[in-house]
Design a protein that fits this description.
The structure is a single chain. The protein is of the alpha/beta class. It has one domain (5-218): Undecaprenyl pyrophosphate synthetase (3-Layer(aba) Sandwich), CATH 3.40.1180.10. It is 41% helix and 15% strand. The chain contains seven helices and six strands; from the N terminus they run E-H-H-E-H-E-H-E-H-H-E-E-H. It has helices spanning 13-18, 24-44, 64-88, 103-115, 132-144, 153-157, 205-217, and strands spanning 5-9, 49-56, 90-95, 122-130, 170-173, 192-195. A six-stranded parallel beta sheet has the order 3-4-2-1-5-6, sandwiched between helices. Strand 3, helix 4 and strand 4 (122-130) form a beta-alpha-beta unit. Helix 3 packs parallel to helix 4 (103-115). The longest helix is centred in the first third of the chain and has 25 residues, at 64-88. The protein starts with a strand and ends in a 17-residue tail after the last helix. It binds 3-methylbut-3-enyl trihydrogen diphosphate (2 copies) and magnesium ion (MG). Residues 11, 175 line the site of magnesium ion.
């Protein structure tokens, strides 16, 4: 079975550039092109939900020059990409603590979501100013500010940034590192994880197919045993 939701930690832009004697920002520019082509691949391979780690809460601590460059790139990308998404039926959700972003970027995020809200060929989630712990703490604070006295695992989901986003079935991390780096901690509960040796700008259809094939070989038991498999969710 194909994964319902593929989550991607797009890592390795900086090293891709440095190894070519280029400035790190050249890697980010190439990374944006890879992101767009990966959205096309998600449509082609019938992946209903795809999420991308664009900018973490920790990434704010990079040098100001790099943070500013990434924010400008984000602005340009949204600006030039929204209409294309509308025409191709791609619904955009920006997921994160958006109050950490400048006002004009916050407005662009809202516009992207608003303009694509009736699209339903593919749901694309962009994690911006996102941290998994921050999301959980923000959810707890929303609960504390409400009248609610207790929550279940299911009702807790309603307080996350994007409750309708399904759990991640296949998590891909490019760029050689084998870690989670604070990506969707709640939603990766039972993700299958594919670590790619490729730097993000080099990620391509073959590597996506490798990841999907890896996913298809997994026996997902969700803590049960095989005899009990019929009761397993999904
Ligand atoms: C990922 O590439 C993009 C962002 C985190 C914004 P990096 O910038 O982390 O690239 P490396 O890991 O330094 O090569
Ligand atoms: C994870 O990559 C964040 C994004 C891809 C946006 P990082 O480069 O920030 O993560 P670490 O520092 O290797 O853990
Ligand atoms: Mg990195």
């Amino acid at each position: 079975m194909n994964p319902n939701h593929v989550g991607i930690i797009m890592d390795g832009n900086g090293r891709w550039a440095t190894e070519r004697g280029l400035e790190r920002f050249e890697g980010h520019k190439r990374g944006l092109e890879t992101l767009k082509s990966t959205v096309d691949l998600a449509l082609k391979h019938n992946i209903p939900h795809i999420s991308f780690f664009v900018f973490s809460t920790e990434n704010f601590f990079r040098p100001a020059k790099e943070v500013n460059f990434l924010m400008d790139l984000l602005k340009q990308a949204f600006f030039s990409y929204i209409d294309e998404c509308v025409s191709r039926g791609i619904k955009i959700k920006v997921v994160g603590n958006l109050s950490l972003l400048e006002d004009d970027i916050q407005r662009l995020c809202k516009t992207a979501e608003e303009k694509t809200k009736y699209c339903n060929n593919l749901k694309a989630y962009f994690a911006v100013a996102y941290g998994g712990r921050r999301e959980i703490v923000d959810a707890v604070n929303k609960i504390l500010a409400s009248q609610v006295k207790s929550v279940s695992e299911e009702s807790f989901r309603q307080y996350l940034y994007c409750p309708e986003m399904p759990d991640i079935d296949l998590l891909i991390r490019t760029g050689k590192e084998k870690r989670i780096s604070n990506y969707f901690l709640w939603q990766i509960q039972y993700s299958e994880i594919f670590f790619s040796e490729k730097y993000w700008p080099d990620f391509d259809e073959d590597e996506l197919v490798n990841a999907i094939n890896f996913f298809k070989t997994r026996e997902r038991r969700f803590g049960r045993v095989m005899d009990n498999f019929a009761n397993v969710k999904n």
